[in-house]
Structure formats: C-alpha cells, structure tokens
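re: ur question from yesterday

yeah so i grabbed the chain u mentioned. its 287 aa long if i counted rite. heres the sequnce exactly as i have it in my notes:
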Amino acid sequence: MANHSIVARDLTYAYGENLAVDHISFEVGEAEIFAYLGPNGAGKSTTVKMLTGQIRPKSGTAALLGMDIAREPNKIQHHIGVAFETTNLYPQMSATENLALFARLFGVKADIPTLLERVGLGTRAKERVEGFSKGMKQRLMVARALVNKPRILFLDEPTEGLDPVSAEAIRELILETRANGATIFLTTHDMLEADKLSDRVAFINQGKIMALDTPHKLKQQYGKRLLKAEIERADGGLDTREITLDSADTGEAVKRLFENEKVVTVHSEEASLEDIFIQVTGRRLMG
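ran it thru and got these structure tokens back, copy pasting raw so excuse formatting
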C-alpha cells in the first residue's frame, strides 16, 4: 500500500526486566482492517498503549497519519478513536451524557442518537451506565470511539460478551467505518472474526511479531488444504481418508481414491487461523 496510517519501526518497551514488546516493525495501510493477535501477555496492549500515546516507547519510533507519536501525541488524539477499557465510562451518567461529554472534550458536534442506534442502544439512551451489562458497556465504548469520526480506530475485543445479533451489528459497523475511509486496528481472540474482517493479520508472541500477512497467504504458507472422504468398508462401516491438496501427487491420489474405493461423502477443508497461530507460536490464542 502506497499510503500508511500507521508505521512502526523497532518499537520496544520493557516493564523492569520484562521485555513486553521486542523491536517490532510493521505498517498499516489507509482504510485497512489490521488484526493484531496474540495470547494474554504477548504484548498486544503495550503495543496499543504506545501507538495511542499512553506510554512512550523505550526505543524505536511510530507515526500515525505521518505524525510522530513521541513528538505530537496531543495532535494525534484528535484523529484516533480508542475502545479498550469500559472502566473510563461514567457510570452515574446516561449513555447520551457519556457521549455528549466526550464530544465536548473533542470540541466536535456528534449525532449521538444515530451513534447509539448504530450500536443497538437507541432505546437505552437515557439510562445510567451503571445498570448496563458488560456487553452494553462494550457497545457504548465503540460508539464513544466514533464520536470524533476518527481516521484510525483502535478496538480491543469489540464483540466480547455480546449476543450473536449484537456482535454481528458491531462487525457490520466496523466494515462500514472502514468503507468510510478509516483504518481499523483490531485485537481479538476470535479467529473467525479476524479471518472474516481483516485485510491482514499479525501474530505476536512474547513481544515479537511471528507472522504477518493476509489470512489467505498465511494459510497458504503455513497451512494445508485437505480432501476428506468417507469410504464404505466391506462390512458396511466407514473409514475416513485424507488427501493433502496442492501437492505434486494430489491428482494421482484422487484418481486412485475414486477408482478403487466406494466413496460415500467428500469435502475439502483448509487450515484455520487458529491452526496457523498454534503452528507459528506453539501456543493457543487463549493461553
């Protein structure tokens, strides 16, 4: 991509002796959905805190929209939206009041009723946040992150704790926001969500980026596609046969299968992002 919303070079951060982020480099293009995946403690939150100006890198640089995060953090804040913690909502205030306060802080006019409708909280606009469920607070945080119409939107587990209908609404909102030109930096434990939404995916483990590419190319590089067939035995039982696709002898193996066996069912299967993540890092995402 010719233009980048985020450019990180050798970003590093340590908590005492613990190197949380270890000289990572990457770029995120304009209007790209970039998924940043890793287990707890991998360095995801620390990376985001550096990119959003909450902490300063120990070494390395990062620029958002061409602005250096170390030199122009206040200027950058007006162009980004962050939905990472529900604890900085005001529980004694209503959903509308929370968004209105945030709009005043940014000095912008926001269509608050429309924002609340978009995240499924239109009917709860006047209720105090203290009575909201975790999922409702999460949706309100997404709405709050959109108040200033950000050019870069940082989202942490945006659909965690949501029912399927609400989760799908948030995913549609993410795609809509990207279609309007915004860049999305997404962390999630939901591999299916990352696969569905993301243009590119980065796997981080122990502070290092282990792999970075489109979901399709990661599957091509690290995974394998299988042809699975159920074969009827002479006694009437079924056996399963697997053939690795895209290998040199695939054609001959498939030919032998259908010539010599009684095939009952057949389907293809490709590696999931979860499979690839385990292969690359040796860990499960929730580990």
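noticed a couple things. The chain has a mean pLDDT of 87. also Residues 164-179 form the longest helix (16 residues).
anyway ttyl
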